[in-house]
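# step 3/5: fold
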Amino acid sequence: MPDDESTPSAGRTMNYGKEQVAVYRTYGTPLEGVGTIPESTFDGRDNTLFGLEVRIQVEGEEFLPSFTEGDNSMVVATDSMKNFVLHHAGEYDGATVEGFLEFVGARFLETYSQMETIRISADELPFEERLVPGEEDGEFEPSDLVFRVSDNEAAFGEISLSREDGEPTIVDHRSGVTGVELVKVKDNSFTGYVQDEYTTLPERENRTLYVALDVFWTYADASQALGDDPAKYVPAEQVRDIAQTVFHEHDVNSIQDLIYRIGLRVLERFPGLESVEFEANNRTWIEVRDDLEGDGKVLREPPRPTGFQQFSVHRSDLEEDAE
């Protein structure tokens, strides 16, 4: 029930859950039928190995006595939550991170009436097929058995559900791709910023730019995030590829400029999206030598602290940019 002045927990933070639940599923349902875009070769995935690290957070008025009186009679142990997630990984017949989260979250609400709302999120644990010799001499092809654990970018999903007319209903959602790290060796600048007595950073007309990105997006229709209609689903791989393509194409004068351009392109390619949000981090290397032949430079790691940028781009921005 919603908090009001008559409920003991009105205005109080009260939730609990389980995090870092690692779950792996082999031979899941393939993701097929996604739309293609000019910036990416991605057109689906086999889901031969599907890994997630899941976080579950539940709320409900009936949990209050466990905090105030030590009464655990309505508490579902977080170890049971972990087992619940692991079991339902075998029941899910969809193909996306978000779809799995909605499936498991809805099953929680259907199973435990004391849970009024649930927020469930996951980071993909990515794996990459390894190349092995093919049938032809000198030919290599992806193995369907051997995978490499990847430290590269990963998909992210978050789904919040509550009950509406007794049925689990999505009330909030967010999709994303995290851990994108890109280095562009030239054709980046940073000029025209405030110059005063605190400024020691020189303007740079042509710098090597190293940026780390987490990108998140929301759909106008939250049900499209689940991937039941693959043609309307936005794969993390395609958003990643848009980011690197825009970075390649433009001589950007700041990371702020870069993420705005990426956001516009994502919204242009995916009409079903409502907004795109960024967390960017500047990890640009410091020049040690720029006197080498041609464009050659010697660079070193930047010292702490590092700069960051947060920004959201909405469909109205795309409409204004088109005018």
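# step 4/5: annotate
The helical segments are 64-68, 78-89, 97-111, 236-249, 255-269, 315-322.
# step 5/5: archive (pending)
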